[in-house]
Amino acid sequence: MEIRVLGPGCARCSTTRKLIAEVIEELGVEASLVQVTDLMEITKYDLMSTPGVVIDGKVVCSGKVPSRGEVRSWISGGSS
After folding, report:
1. For the chain, how many structural domains are there in total?
2. Element (DSSP H or E) covering residue 40
3. Which of 5, 25, 27, 53 sits most deeply, having the most CB atoms within 10 A of its CB?
4. Model confidence over 32-68: pLDDT tens digits?
């Protein structure tokens, strides 16, 4: 599973990345977590606002810090 956190590196983006990392560890899943700060790369995902979360190529969240429950659902259920 590849998870990307898209954003300029602001506090909300960092919080999102940290939360996802914690849930990955809690669930004991194998996942690659990458923070993408390059604007050209971010624009490929057609986000209206950041932070954005992309799991295995699918945007699952944008414009907010997700809840722990949302992150657990995405990771345990794949990208949905």
Report:
1. 1
2. helix 39-43
3. 53
4. 999 999 999 999 998 889 999 999 999 999 999 999 9
Q: What is the mean pLDDT of residues 6-27?
A: 96
Which residues have a Cβ under 8 Å from the Cβ of 6 and sit 6 or more positions away? 13, 36, 41, 42, 45, 47, 50, 51, 52, 53, 54, 62
Please state the length of the chain. 80
Selecting among 10, 27, 29, 39, the annotated active-site residue is 10
- Is 59 exposed, middle or buried, given 0-12, 13-18 or 19+ CB atoms closer than 10 A? middle
Catalytic-residue membership of 13: yes
Query: Which residues constitute the domain of residue 22?
Result: 2-76
CATH number at residue 68: 3.40.30.10
Active-site annotation holder among 3, 5, 6, 13: 13
pTM exceeding 0.85: yes
Check if 61 is active-site. no
